[in-house]
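okkk here we go again. third time trying to get the magnesium ion bound version out, last two times i messed up the smiles copy paste (missing a bracket lol). double checked this time i swear
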Amino acid sequence: MSGDLTQKVSAGITLTLCVAALAYYSKSIAAWQRGHFFESTIQECAIKWTNSKIVTSEYERRDGRKLRVPEKLPPAVHVDPIYPDPILKLRPDYFVLPILQNGPNNQLVGFREVIFLAIKLNRTVVVPLFIKHHTDNGTIPLVSPVHRLQVEDLCTFVSCITIENFRKACGYVLHGMFNTRGLKSNYGAVVAKTNGMKPIEPVLPLIPPGDMKPGTARHYRGSEITKLFSSEARCVIFPRPLTNLHPLSRNRDMKEFKTKRNFIESIDDLASASEYHLAITIKHHTRSPRYISDMAKEFAKDIMNDKPYISIHWRYQPNEFLQRCKFNPDGNAVKSKICANAMDITPMDIATAIEERILSISGLPIKTIYFATPSSERRVLSDVASYLYEKHGYFTYSSLDLIAFMTEKFAPCRHLQDHFNDILSTTEMEICTFSSVFLGSLRSTWSDVVHSARHTTDTTATSTGSDGDIFTLSMNAMKRRNGDLIDTR
Ligand SMILES: Nc1nc2c(ncn2[C@@H]2O[C@H](COP(=O)(O)OP(=O)(O)O)[C@@H](O)[C@H]2O)c(=O)[nH]1
Ligand SMILES: [Mg+2]
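finally!!
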């Protein structure tokens, strides 16, 4: 039956592609008959992904161009924020530039931390460079911020400038670096160089001063930010932000928030807001780009027939994610649990976990599944899908369907094709965000970002009360199968 399902899925994809090709060619023949073949075949990209304020070439550097520091440094000039009248207007001549690292969702989580800090320190946020995931090789390594967030949503909330205006506003000089990590002493100078700027001193001054142990990160609370990081240095970088800041790394209170749904909407709100409240508002304003959300909604409507669906994220590829099992110097308990069990979980265990969750939801007849996973895990996906189809007639969709959908949509969009995998992953995250129920992968930021988006997005479809973690559910199914766990269902 596994073969049947695979055949069914590929037959579906082939059919979709054939219909698309037929539609395309019949249009072309009609155009040729009308005598204007050439004009009509050059289709316009219908996806509205651009933002007129963001110059793609400044963020993607497609030609591999290295930025040069001007020989004679021009004086610093005043620059306006990207949107002139944001809700939270911050000092226009003090800045913080995040230097992002790791995978796309680590970058997003880190960026949120810097926004929090910028608001507390009253500094304009520099919209930073975003990097592609290391598995996304062979493509341009940088991706414009317009493919990672809805820049307008962020920059009408808080003062932002672009990276090229940051250089101009700083006279091409960096003045300091927040001292949040134990880094090599030349780190600041290297960052300055890659951004076409100069450090004010050969070793960029640290804020606060003092050496940190190599490889360590500073953890701090919101209430400590002003004391630690206030400075007269105007143009400052924040190296490799991630989860240093306490309130942003917690997902608690989410349920309470869902019912209140009161974001910070004015500078007066900010004065009385809790740190948690600010953190959640920042998450709300750093959601995925609207064109990607729209594409996810269209996929759910047109391809998954607008049915209520459960989404799953399975992230445990042996050759990538589980490689981090080699490094667990602190003996982190959650990580140890994943490393000890992930390889023994079978597709049948995952299918059992999904089946049990679907059957436990009363009042919502779910028969449709979206299974998100990196491409190397498609075998797991196909076995899970066949089991659930055979036993219950549940129909599983996955990136295979989404790829076919996006390939057709992106045919006239040359620029988007260059970022296909990056956009594919974000679109899958959006499909999970809008699902009725979501089962994510423990210790994956991809899943964590989806969990928080489900709480900070306006949608009626989501019912976060039944959300959970597919790893623990599958591990329990495995333990019951092995007789290591008493069946208490
Ligand atoms: N298309 C797709 N890509 C995935 C999926 N899960 C992980 N990836 C890939 O792995 C990257 C996730 O890295 P990151 O954002 O750092 O999250 P984390 O590694 O799960 O904590 C994504 O950018 C994708 O390239 C998935 O379900 N679908
Ligand atoms: Mg990662």
